[in-house]
Structures are given as structure tokens and as C-alpha cells.
Design goal:
The protein has seven helices and 13 strands. With 276 residues, it is α/β, with parallel strands linked by helices. The longest helix has 13 residues.
Length: 276
């Protein structure tokens, strides 16, 4: 998705109306957005500056905006459990995702993390995404194509128990059941020093994953969770909203390191394998 000052044909556009009701569409000459508040023609949007106010044929007001990644992810068709933006943002930072990198994921799901990764690595980067289920992969592929990022993603269909084709990935995000069963395969796909991240729903899975990470020579291990609380934005009554996005999963991070045969290295390895 390329950001610009005005709406162009082929761009993803977000129309936000009263009570923040919104629609995300791909602008196409001759197209229309139909709602109970009236019809907005795409031809009336193309060429307008982002942030403009537009009106339906019934006079209902909308703002024309370029959607954020969070807006896009919240709007994705999905068949699997979603990753929340609060977790995705922290994952991207902690795993060092940057332009030009080759990054991997296993467990594509509906493609939300795929889109976030593809956006962050940029046009010169590459995302390799492994999935075992054909229907799930097809949905993810459509979601990635919808936001114009298909050229940055390689989709592969495979049981990841068989391992991966790659051996020098900068980072690897693992989003599967029982991630501890695939740590050895992930290690083989990462470059030395590469970043590992996963999201795990339960304590017992975290425990098994920590043990397996240490056995497979991962270090600098961290476990955390991210909670997000919104506040009402009315200056006259600022207070927390009635609902918050609290626990969604435990985030586990680690780095691939090379084992040492030197006794001094082995002693240091024991100290840093699992952070205090």
C-alpha cells in the first residue's frame, strides 16, 4: 500500500460516516459504495485529497481517508482467531522487522500478520508464509492481494513438521498449535542471531516452548503480554472506556545463537538462555 496526498484509482479508501461507521473499498472508475445513508460514487472520490469530506446522493456526510494497517486488519475476512494490532505492533518491534529483510511465518491464518510483515519489509523485502490448509491459504492470499502486497509474499503449502526451504531468514514468527514441536525446524530456517517470536494462549504451552528453546540453543528469551486500554476522547468526560483489550496471548521472543564448546562459553550460555 503506497501512501499519497490524493485518492487514486486502485487505492484502498476508507469512508467514515456518522457514529464512525466505515467502509473500506478499492477505488475503481465507475464503482459505487452503497449504504443505508446513500450511494457514493468512486469517480467522485478519485483525485480528492485524503481527509476531504464527501457526501452521498442523500446528503449524508463521510470523510475520505486512507486506512491505517489497523483499520485494514480489523476489516479482513477471517476464518481463524485474529491477531490484535496491539500484539502485532509489539511483535514487529521486538523481532527487529525492517525494510529489505527476508522474514518468515508459519501458520498464515487469514493473513493479518502477513500484511503487517509485508508492509514493514517494504518493496525490497520478502515474506515467506507457510500454511498447511488450502482453504486458509487461499483466503489469506486474497486478503494480501486486496491490499496490493502480493508481490512481496511467497505462499507455501506444507506440513511444517517437514521443515522449511529457507536457511537464512532474518526473523521468524510462529503462530501454530504446540509451537514447541517446531522449534528445531525454525532454528534451521533462521540465520545466526535471527529473531524468533510466537504468540501462545496458555501457560503450559509457554513452559514447553521455553524448555524447547533452551534445548535448541536459543537465548535472550523474553515472555510478556500486552494490554490495551482506551479512553473516552470527550474533553468533558475523559475516563476509561467500558471495555478493554486485555489478555489475548503470551508473547515469547528469542534469538538464535551458536553453541560453544569452550567451557567459558557453556557457562555464559546457561546464564543467558532464559532471561531473569
Amino acid at each position: 500500500m503506497i501512501y499519497s496526498s490524493t485518492a487514486r484509482e486502485g487505492d484502498l479508501a476508507q469512508l467514515v460516516g456518522l457514529t464512525h461507521k466505515h467502509f473500506i473499498v478499492t477505488l475503481k472508475s465507475g464503482g459505487e459504495v452503497q449504504s443505508h445513508r446513500g450511494v457514493v460514487k468512486h469517480d467522485d472520490l478519485i483525485g480528492k485529497p485524503w481527509g476531504s469530506q464527501v457526501f452521498s446522493h442523500m446528503g449524508a456526510p463521510f470523510f475520505l481517508l486512507q486506512p491505517s494497517i489497523a483499520d485494514i486488519l480489523n476489516d479482513l475476512p477471517r476464518t481463524t482467531q485474529i491477531l490484535y494490532p496491539k500484539d502485532i505492533g509489539y511483535l514487529l518491534i521486538m523481532m527487529g522487522i525492517a525494510p529489505g529483510q527476508q522474514v518468515m511465518e508459519a501458520g498464515t491464518g487469514s493473513g493479518s500478520m502477513t500484511i503487517a510483515l509485508a508492509t514493514t519489509v517494504g518493496a525490497e523485502g520478502r515474506v515467506i508464509s507457510y500454511e498447511q490448509k488450502v482453504d486458509t491459504q487461499n483466503l489469506a492470499r486474497k486478503n494480501v492481494e486486496r491490499v496490493g502486497l502480493a508481490s512481496r509474499v511467497d505462499f507455501k503449502l506444507r506440513d511444517i513438521q517437514l521443515g522449511f526451504d529457507e536457511t537464512d531468514a532474518d526473523a521468524f514468527f510462529l503462530d501454530v498449535q504446540n509451537p514447541n514441536e517446531y522449534i528445531a525446524q525454525v532454528r534451521a530456517a533462521l540465520k545466526p542471531g535471527g529473531f524468533f517470536g510466537t504468540l501462545i494462549p496458555t501457560f503450559n504451552q509457554v513452559e514447553r516452548t521455553l524448555i524447547t528453546l533452551k534445548k535448541n540453543n536459543f537465548a535472550f528469551v523474553e515472555v510478556c503480554e500486552v494490554m490495551l486500554r482506551h479512553y473516552k476522547s470527550d474533553p468533558a468526560r475523559i475516563r476509561p472506556t467500558d471495555r478493554m483489550v486485555a489478555h489475548t496471548g503470551y508473547l515469547v521472543f528469542a534469538r538464535k545463537i551458536e553453541p560453544s564448546t569452550d567451557p567459558r562459553g557453556l557457562e555464559l550460555m546457561n546464564e543467558i538462555s532464559v532471561e531473569e
